[in-house]
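stage 2 :: seqdesign
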């Protein structure tokens, strides 16, 4: 095996390791293994270079400023699944308290967001499995 071949092999195995890690992370997300709901909420929310958009007021904030909101409040039986979590700015989250006035709209929006992300994940998995065949 020449230099170039071993270079390519090293590159491919590094790439495969990264892909395997992404697959495992994706698997854990799907099965809600991660009990850290703040991390889970951010892992499952799109950001624009670290800027998150509040779904209520539309303003953009840095991750550390954002709160994680339970769409169905925990006091009303809401759980820590990714379907029930959304990132929200402190102002909107504090004014929401445990009101359920916008719960239905928030659940629909969250479900659409996760569905789109799942489709992107599936696309990624398909592209890997095509390459490995
Ligand atoms: Zn807001």
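stage 2 :: out
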């Amino acid at each position: 095996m020449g230099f170039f071949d071993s270079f390519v092999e090293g590159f491919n195995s590094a790439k495969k390791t990264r892909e395997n890690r992404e697959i495992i992370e994706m698997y854990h997300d799907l099965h809600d293994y991660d009990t850290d709901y703040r991390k889970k909420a951010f892992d499952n929310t799109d950001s624009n270079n670290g800027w998150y958009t509040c779904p209520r007021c539309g303003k953009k904030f840095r991750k550390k400023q954002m709160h994680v909101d339970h769409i169905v409040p925990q006091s009303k039986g809401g759980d820590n699944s990714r379907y029930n979590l959304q990132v929200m700015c402190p102002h909107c989250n504090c004014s929401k308290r445990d009101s359920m006035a916008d719960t239905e709209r928030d659940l629909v929006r969250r479900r659409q967001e996760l569905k789109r992300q799942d489709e992107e994940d599936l696309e990624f998995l398909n592209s890997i499995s095509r390459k490995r065949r």
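stage 3 :: structure notes
- The CA atoms of residues 23 and 124 lie 9 Å apart.
- The beta strands are 51-53, 60-62, 67-70, 85-88.
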